[in-house]
Amino acid sequence: MTFTHLHVHSSFSPNWGIHSPAILCAAARAAGMTRLALTDRNGLYGIPRFIEEAQKAGIAPLIGAEAVSGAHRAVLLVRDQGGYANLCHLLSALHGQHPFDLVEALGNWREGLFILSDDALLLDRLSRQSRNDLFVELSPGHNMEKTIALSRYLGLPPVATNRAVFLHDEDVKVHRVLRAIAGNTTLPRLSDDDCARPTDFLLPAAALSAHFPHCPEALHNAARIADTCQTDWEFSATIFPRFRGLADRQAACELEQRTRTGALWRYCEMNAKIEARLTKELAIIRDKGFAHYFLVVQELAEQSPRTCGRGSAAASLVAFCLGITHVDPLRYNLFFERFLNEGRIDPPDIDIDFPWDERDAVLDFAFRRYGAQRAAMVANQVGFKSRGALREVAKVFGLPADEIKTVTRRLDSHWSAQRGIEAMDCHPLFRGETLSSDWQNILAIASRLQGQLRHLAQHCGGLVIVPDDIRRYVPVEVSAKGRPLIQWEKDQTEAAGLVKIDILGNRSLAVIRDALAAVARHTGTVIDYRDWQPLADHKTRALLCTGDTMGCFYIESPATRQLLKKMWGQRPLPDEDTLFEHLVMASSIIRPAANNFIREFVARMHGKPWRHLHPRLEPILGETYGLAVYQEQITQIAMALSGFTASEGDKLRKIISKKDKGQKLQDYQQRFISGGLGNGVAAQVLNKVWQQVLSFAGYSFCKPHSASYALVSCKAAWLKAHYPAEFLAAVISNGGGYYTTLGYLSEARRTGLHILSPDINASEHAHHGKGDTLRIGLMQIASLTRQTSDLILAERRCHGPFAGFGDFLLRLPQLPAADVKQLIKAGCFDMLEGRRQRPGLIWRLLEHQHNPAIRSLGDLFVAEPATAPYLPPCDDSTLRAQELETLGLPAGYHPLEPYEKYIQTSGAIPAAELGRWVGRHVTLAGWWVTGKPVRTANGTPMEFVTFEDTTALFDATFFPAAYARFCQKLGRARPYLIKGVVEEEFGVATVNVMWLGFLDDEGKVNSVCRTRITSDHSG
Amino acid sequence: MTRDILHVAIPDFDVALARAVDPTLKNRPLAVAAGVSDRALLHCVSAEARGDGVQPGMSVHVARRCCPALHLLPPQPERAQRAMQVFAELAQNCSPLWEPGNDGRLFLDLTGSSRLLGAALDVAARLERDIIEQLRLPATCGVAGNKLVARIAADYLDRPGICDVLRGSEGCFIGPLTISTLPGVGSVRTGRLLEDLNLRRIEQIAVLSVAQLEPVCGPFAALLHQRARGIDPSPVCSPRRTSAIVEETVLPRADNDDTAVRAALGRLAESCGLRLRSLARGTTRLCLTVRYVDGLSEERTDTFAIPKAFDLELMQAADRLLQRTWQRRVRLRALRLGCDRLAPLTQQMDLFSAPQQSIDETTLQTALDRLRRQFGHESVQWGRNL
Q1: How far apart are the CA of B123 and the nearest CA of chain A, in angstroms?
Q2: Which residue of A has its CA nearest to B61?
Q3: A739-773 residue pLDDT tens
Q4: pTM for the full predicted model
Q5: Binary contact (B215, A866; C-beta < 8 A)
């Protein structure tokens, strides 16, 4: 019998542990251990990961947890399956029951668990119930003498542990910082009880036994417990939900019946092709026991008439017939094996998008249907990442928020503290600055915070449903919203065999819903969402081909709009199916660092001669011009060239898509090359294909997913082509997408719409588009409460429009003065009273609030109201300032309009004419719309920026030299002056920026120059 | 009766003092900040630095980015105190009725003294000359019929000189100035008045009645109305004497280390104790103000039934107060410990009260005081305060 560490904390002990299970297992293995327990605090947060890593390292894993509640503490080790379920129940109660008594709970759920503790009260009470499996925990540095005395007093056997947290000396400092962050305190104020002891190392058995010369039985007992605990854990069995208590066979019959009904609804008839595909799919679904899962998902999808099934599920004809997805997999040749195949052992994943404001109602339905006992949400395990780590450590060191922000705001969200000071030093945004010694220290510590768990948060839509009790499989906590929340994030949930249904929020579905409702209200045209074929329309196809897709879901980013223009700009309009196929390709090929592929793709589309790298690739890459575009093509390529099976190919796809590839990828590369060589494919070809496949790294999509999204894009494009006012009003009201509200308003203006200011008698809460006008809604007014907005609208509905400001005050005296003032300054009363009256109205409001007696008209003696003073009307600049203050944007004019005369003197050309200046140096005036910082192949930062002037949007590229020089000026709400060379590719003109400045600076300079010149002349 | 009020201001007092001592600092962008840390906040800023966007209250780190050539000076509180003393003595020579203000400012009431001292303008010129001669500091003077306009007149000048406002025309003088010039019109009221009601100049407020102003600024309306018309009846008040004992310190570097902060606080408690014992009095109320590096401050007080004057008991009470006051994690910049509600240190013990100071502690404190009197305050110190 060998000693085993029975009390070990990994980084999954919230705000306590340092090292990941993988590192701990490797360290244990290096120290010659063969078994290791993981006992994270109050949870099994990392158990599936631990089991996987332990198996890899050749370590036998023991499952456990340290339960800490109030003054009580105990280490609980799982002896068998029953003990695991009991531990899950106990930990769920610890997080969910208030008040919670650990001793009492242990009394109820101790079956199958070993209990180790040095808590005298706990041991005493439990020992009266039963002395079995109860041990006194002896750990060096933790009152050993006292604990030995306790063991002798109670007559309970001692067991040796080292409460291991640390592997290296510097871990102690990191642990103290973690504790200070968790306790919202500083390092000097941390007490010893708040932290692990500096002796809590994962010591080799020999080193630890040196601490127990007087109590060798403690070491012996540790080994004995380890021998008894179960170590052959297997989590791979898939746990499916059960649909309405049906047996498997009944569920399969129900599914088949519903699918066939759905097929008739979708196709109006059954043919051999449909029948064959349905039979194949239904057979696989039945054999693998997925029928329940499909029925549950269908029931959820039925909760909203507008959904979008994302992911590989869109390749399933069954899902299409059930109304879960809306793209016809037969028509668009979607590869079913990507979703389900005989060899696939992990559960399939159906993700459904709902309109973002309907998602909570769908989740409520799911919990009503299955109850909190069977259903729970998947967690997000929130740890420390880049800026967050830096911010938290800086707070511990007492730096003020402002100073922290000056550093963190210049770091992008992908910056990692691990890259450290050098990465900051060489970044142009930190040019000319040296980091103080404090910051260097903070960075050094932040760089060691990686992946440590802080707390759980609710995953945006992951739902797990089990047939019996979820608390048998995993401990459940309660989220901030009050929903049950399992302790695992999506990867571990999947690894533990729990099937997840993603119910996600999608703003564009809400946009389409709102726009369709507005269209029905205004024109009486009602469109059936599920049966809508937007690409049959010529105008929609034209809009897509010109890349005029701002506001359209998924295809509105500058890169995608440019790509669409390049693809179709100078070609005749394609037919419906061709355009759809290419749209799907376009939305899949847009990914970081894929510029060369995109260029090659467009060139081939425009007729550049090309050949497949190998004839075997022809059936796979034929539809995508010989380039790998979709995720499933990885699988297919591996199958065709190197003889992979479908499931092996699928594994390769998964590994490539993950960021943490490591050794596995190298193994697969070797298999790919050797398999290919065996099939007679040249090594050179294999290497080229491998490079192309690797370019997917983490950012690829499968064709069914892209097709599903492309259909939503087309519906949005249809609405934009036919009802731009209703569509853009819905886009802005639903929070927009890639661009700011100002960007969408400018787009509306370019589309020919008139933007109307908010009006007390005409505005709704949301923005409102009709005909050629777009009226700004009350929701745009800053700090106006929803309650005020609702009161105004209700009063207007009941008693008609307001006759004037006095009428408004009389009818709605309960409104807060601050809200009414915002309404005045936003121009809501301009139509009734005139904009010159704004100062006077504010005085009347203040006077009205100041003298409430005057309001009660019934009083006999009321004070004479003060005569209204003469207040000068606001000038244009004040009105503009009020508009910016209340609406956050210039509504009635383009932000560049006030600088018109400077633009004229600067010699700037209109952006709409950019195409006429190809190859020449130009000056442009621009307002910043959006930017995308990227890195070149050798890691130098650069940025693609979209500006707009009053005539058009235009894209500008800041190559590394220009970026280094001007990056500190980017992203401001100021008018820019841009100088550069116009470049053209496939008919799309962009500006290669050479110089960037601010137009208002220029204006000052120019006006000073002009004044000086004028005075010189007059002098 | 027409009053003659003179306001004398030394612009950027701390910077001006530094330049008086070291003339090579002239025409350079300067700022006064305590400590050498990047986080130190600027107390006072020269006109050259202000031109580059540097403002008092900014951190050194930010200020250096605005103005890379910024030269930092350490604060010299003793020097400032000496200069203020001389400044006050010069003022006293002109009029017995003078009122000190903050940062190198004071008011003099010269009403009815023209036959004794000469015209107010001459007194101002003389005082300005004396300040230049004796302190080598530039001064701006405002002479008017009341304190309000005199102060506005002094600040109106952007270079040393005298601005004499014709008595009776105070309203006309301040009328065209922006309303933020008026004291009491802070950023909140300025915002409401200027932006919402489109009132920009003082004269636009002056034409409104109190009743019309009341809805806008409530009880302040009458005072604002008065001020907008250039009326200020407040008298020039001689400085009051206070019995409170206050000790403050700026930490050598902003810190959130308890040990360093407690040491600094202990030193303050020692200083307070020494002064209390020299008066043979004890404090029944301790007031601690902590100032954070980001400019925020917190204040807490603690009261005692029995007066305290001994180092140990003051330090313990101050520590307890520090625990209550210092709630944030942000580093501290400065500490201020005040002792007020002084009471005689009575030897009469209450029959039923808690035990008072033991004989040993009294003996120890007496011995320490004797040593310090003989060999200086630094000769013997509590270990925790080192």
Answers
A1: 42
A2: A403
A3: 989 999 999 999 999 999 999 999 999 999 999 99
A4: 0.80
A5: yes
